[in-house]
Design the sequence.
């Protein structure tokens, strides 16, 4: 499997090489930020939007992110080693550095898109709801809860997905304590209601999705308007289709939620194309 | 500053040496477990209780922790390099290993106790409440929220403490969505009500504290009985003293909560001694 690693201050290095000391706060405390992008033949898709979000995450966590030019160069270094024209998952990671102080640890990795995601783009998803425990309002008033921040503290995200996998499911849809659909651990929720293309307001503390934002911003090309709405999971059954989207996963239709079939949209292929993802 | 690092499969290595590859899930996903213990002249204090908790955390996260004998040996390797008789903070860390599979990454570190903690044992704490967003009940029914698990995904823990520090405070006391005191980001809450020594029930999803457990189990030596109770933060003002305790911090009295003075207990020094922490 092809993998590439480029490290700030070191350039391209063998991806097997250890680069983090034992007391890096990234591993001791999950203390850092990251972004995952879809690498396409013409470069990382929505690169500026991802860098904008990484800067916002870092500012919220007081992580001194290197200048944007350094992140762009890291990505370029990694990309130069990647097979021409191949789809890839480009990740930028920046931890706070070691416990004893010193500079951040910052690097770019390039990996193939998991085969699982490519299958999900074609075949859709069977998922279940799972509470995230928090109300749809609390994170807006409590910045220390890191709503909207893409930190590397993904312990609960990964545990939620393992819980789904143990039931033979593809993912979970997190639900707020007051019963509203929020997001998936690594994807944004979108749904179609007639000619209104919807997502969840970021005031709920969900991560503002870059792929979701792109699709909503281009919804008019399919004759739709875009809107932020609150929705209860069972209400998704009476929409005109629902999707989980992310940079690496692409556009994946939710075909089953808590064992209930969701309507199959005739627009799925159009959405894949609107996002520029390889056709299903 | 003296620091020691011992790595599973490698033994004692220079603590500056990079040991984790870029795609270790510990740093990519905050995906792993840890324990911090108080190293004393006669060994790591409450070692078995910490290893028990680490095994429970690993089981809850499906992290294949090495056999206990290997963890004990790692700690012994580190300790052999530590100055005789010096107090220290011994940490055991175990991540899930790299994204492409393979063994866990497991190591022990030894560091001095932060001077800040030694000051707090003497002078007490000024802290503020901060919501954790979740109710006191939800985590018991939602194992994917990792209540009671000591994972390395401490992003919210650290953000909570930075939020406190920006206000010139020593720490926060997390409060549930339904208004009950829970715990601090790295410490257990204890309080005295007459001759009843209290802590918060673990059914709330707090981490079961080892130092707190020891003090409660020995409360009878001070003529007290131990109890688990729910309490609202303002009710702490009418107790007979409240403390935040942890292995590294020791026993630190809460002297101010949300700018209200808390009663000063005459038993503080006895509690330090009951915990075997160097006298204030």
Sequence:
């Amino acid at each position: 499997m092809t993998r590439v690693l480029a490290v700030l201050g070191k350039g391209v290095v063998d991806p097997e090489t250890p680069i983090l000391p034992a007391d890096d706060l990234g591993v001791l405390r999950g203390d850092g930020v990251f972004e995952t992008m879809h690498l396409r033949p013409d470069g990382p898709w929505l690169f500026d939007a991802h860098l904008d979000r990484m800067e916002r995450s870092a500012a919220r966590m007081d992580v001194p992110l290197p200048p944007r030019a350094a992140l762009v160069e890291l990505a370029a270094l990694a990309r130069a080693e990647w097979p021409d024209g191949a789809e890839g998952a480009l990740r930028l990671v920046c931890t706070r550095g070691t416990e004893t102080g010193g500079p951040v640890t910052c690097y770019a990795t390039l990996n193939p898109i998991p085969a699982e995601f490519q299958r999900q783009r074609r075949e859709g998803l069977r998922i279940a709801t799972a509470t995230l425990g928090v109300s749809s309002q609390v994170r807006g008033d409590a910045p220390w809860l890191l709503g909207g921040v893409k930190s590397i503290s993904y312990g609960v995200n990964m545990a939620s997905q393992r819980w789904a996998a143990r039931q033979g499911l593809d993912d979970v849809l997190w639900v707020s304590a007051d019963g509203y659909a929020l997001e998936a651990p690594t994807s944004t929720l979108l749904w179609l209601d007639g000619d209104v293309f919807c997502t969840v307001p970021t005031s709920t503390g969900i991560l503002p999705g870059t792929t979701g934002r792109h699709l909503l911003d281009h919804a008019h090309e399919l004759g739709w308007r875009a809107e932020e709405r609150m929705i209860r999971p069972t209400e998704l059954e009476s929409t005109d289709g629902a999707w989980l989207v992310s940079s690496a996963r692409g556009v994946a239709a939710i075909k089953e939620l808590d064992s209930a079939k969701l309507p199959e949209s005739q627009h799925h292929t159009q959405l894949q194309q609107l996002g520029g993802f390889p056709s299903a």
In short: Chain A touches chain B through 61 residues (CB under 8 Å). Residues 15 and 78 of chain A are 11 Å apart (CA to CA). Chain A has two domains: 4-112, 117-274.
